[in-house]
């Protein structure tokens, strides 16, 4: 499997190490970087009217731009995991398990009903 | 290997599907969610003075909170990839290859020199 | 006129001074705070489907929450202006004058045409 | 007084009206715009090491850039106030009064003590 999170994290650690950029990669700075990249991603959709995924998919340039910005977000997330020795895949799995319980059928239905008023 | 991005994306797709939340998971909404979660992550460091990773690591509660918020960011990134049929691991690898070239030794050294004035 | 930006900035400077919080109010920290508060504002609209202003206005609780989060954003913007001796009203006027020129009739019409494809 | 918030809001309302951009200025879109501009502001400080205000002030180009991005944030905040008929100066004053009470001497001292551990 060549899409292992830990392998990609390791590759990114080497990229940073090779450039001696570890001294800039403090957790606070990486958190800023993640927010900034997230907002470059968000900007791709600014002033749109919440188009469906199918509509967005028809625009190859947009999907490429989104893919690119999304990668930036995820790469800095890998950087944060590297700096704090966080097992990111494990953290994701734990959060997913938590969400699976937290949003049980009843809760999920309630949330959906609230949100449907705004659709 | 149990930390495959595509496997985790698939698990998240099932979580969303089971709750019929796909109708809320438009790309624009997911981009908003990623920004919001990124800022919950950022808030963990607000008013700090850029502590080194080693300092942050000593605070177990903080690392747990960061791990949790980081997972939220990454999970919504998986959601975006799912909605737009983006191969996220591939996007990350492409961006890393691009960065490898873009930040060659000379450029990286220049950037470091500029940033060192602010350290 | 009791809605003068400089008067409000001065009041906020006194609030910060009285608590001796100036040492936390570095420009970088305030920029983080502005982003974080902006995202609390954004969260008020998460998973909505871009409702018209008139729809949002009907929900008093939502307008109150938005008003509250918007104030947080603006207060930290005042904090940044205070820290860097920026005349914020002047900065706003200059930017508005710049935008007035930059988005002339032709440019504005082009932008609108592009955006209308996503409405 | 020529730095009245309501006067500046009114000027911005005319700018938007003249370009017929009201249809894009939904509250959700403006919240996105505020977050995006906040992060362009944040980007001005990315990878810095939390320099003091006095240090930042020495860099005229940086202060100009910050001033410019800060204006963008505030202008979109005016846009949000316009769309939802929020009296922004009043909202700011109410929040400041609330903060004045909420962060009484004891609370403020406690917060400072917690934060001082991270300085």
TrEMBL record, chains A, B, C, D:
Cited Pfam families: MazG-like
Region described as Disordered: spans on this chain: 99-119
InterPro entries on file: dCTP_Pyrophosphatase (IPR052555), DCTPP (IPR025984)
Domain of life: Archaea
Biased composition (Acidic residues): 101-119
PANTHER family per the UniProt record, alphabetical: DCTP PYROPHOSPHATASE 1
Protein name listed in UniProt: Nucleotide pyrophosphohydrolase
């Amino acid at each position: 499997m060549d899409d292992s999170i830990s392998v990609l994290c390791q590759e990114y650690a080497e990229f940073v190490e090779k450039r001696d950029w570890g001294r800039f990669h403090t957790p606070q700075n990486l958190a800023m970087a993640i927010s900034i990249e997230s907002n470059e991603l968000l900007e791709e959709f600014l002033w749109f009217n919440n188009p469906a995924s199918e509509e967005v998919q028809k625009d190859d340039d947009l999907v490429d731009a989104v893919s690119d910005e999304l990668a930036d977000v995820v790469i800095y997330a890998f950087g944060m995991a590297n700096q704090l020795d966080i097992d990111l895949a494990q953290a994701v799995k734990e959060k997913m398990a938590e969400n699976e319980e937290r949003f049980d059928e009843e809760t999920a239905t309630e949330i959906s009903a609230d949100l449907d008023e705004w659709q």
